[in-house]
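Support reply, case 0932

Customer input (verbatim):
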Amino acid sequence: MNTSMRSNIGPSTGRRGLAVLLALCASAAALAAPGAAAAREPSRVTAAPPAIGWGPCPRPDPPSPEPGPRAECATVRVPLDWSDPQGPKTGVFVARQRAADPARRIGVLMSNPGGPGAPGADDALYADDPYEGYDPAMLQRFDMVGFDPRGIGRSQGARCDESILDSMPSRPRDAAEFERLRTLNGRLAESCLRRTGPLAAHMDTESVARDMDAIRAALGEPRISFLGHSYGTLIGERYARLFPGRLRALALDSAVDPDLSGAERYLTDGSVTVDGALRRLARWCAGETECALHGHDLMAVTRELFARADAGTLREPGPDGPAPARVTADQLSALLTFTAGRGMPESAARQLAALRTGRGEVHWSSGGSNEIATRLVLCRDNDLRMRDYAHYRAIRERVARAAPGVRHNAQALDFVLDCQGWPLPPRPRPARAGGAPPPVLVVNATHDLATPLPGARRMARAFPRATLRTVDTVGHWLYRFGMPERRVIDDWLTAGRGN
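Our regenerated output:
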């Protein structure tokens, strides 16, 4: 993610901070109670906000380039807590590039790049970028609108004490470390509430979807089209549940599971996906002479490496032979996640060969998530909590049996551990409003470590009318891959299927 929320203010602790935390937790719990359901219905939102006052866009921080010359920016004020629409407001930063051909204009296309917690205004600021922007045909027919979700980036970014992250165990080895992780996550949440205020308790995706509808109203548009990537697909799903009649077209690229049923399913889906990507790598290696392990059984090599890691005899490779540093099984799982799981066959095979021989170079993932925005969003949208260390170990053992080649998906495990001890309770999935959304297109790779195919299938089943298009590849965010997936999505949005 692009947003840094590091603060120079020292840690905040003490009785007053705990009181603030408990009060805000109580407020958040009230939102989740059945009695609060009526307050969350779309019909209870405030009157339409005034038209957006567009102006020049702020200069980006280096090394980001200047936005396109046609980009314009604004801030839309929305209720900080949508159950109290007349209460305090927060600002959402919005960017737009108008359709280049007004005579053929279809309407507004909003988008979000995911994260969770990634800024989204850049989708509009750089919509005309020849490499990472949209095709000219899309720019001609749509007003491209992007926004930084509440608490993210230029939308009054949340501030927390990131120094707490330095003390967190990335992979708890015993009950004491697991409890230490839970305690430190609680302190981190307290620091967010102290430094950011109540906004830190209201960065869930339902609130973001309601903000998106406030932007629609401020634009004066009766309906919008939406393109969500990765975690941005959940924004699309939440919007469709809350405001189905206000969607013209909907496309979801690399879709998350819209209703995670717990840490074990999330971790299992992701780990089995990476395990499948490793087996795909082994088949490639058997047939390609450029593979550094060609002529070897790659799956047998990884089993050998895990055995050595378990025994404490696997060493980090060096230019002249093994280095003194030991390599753990968790490090090996992370290496497999971020090489084989990301479709990097040459690099994955080369690094596995280096580990096997002791000569060469390996690029390690540090382990653990340093993105506080992930916690502020993910842990409010999904219940990934585990009872205790014994529960954690039992889940990991079952996951390892389901994905024996890799043992676990390191990214998914990072996210699960981020939510242990997080004191703000998960919000329930909102009730579906009356009316039907337009047909949705869901596009997903068969081997996507971040948004596994089982979750994408559940996303498609969440809609009355959906088309699921799968692509037999290892990768994430298929819109970036170009043809044909990009063209399929563009055609779907342009046609406005069902409308």
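We compared this against your earlier run and they match. Two observations from our side: The first strand starts at residue 71 and ends at 79. Residues 1-45 have pLDDT under 50 and may be disordered. Please reopen the case if you see a mismatch on your end.
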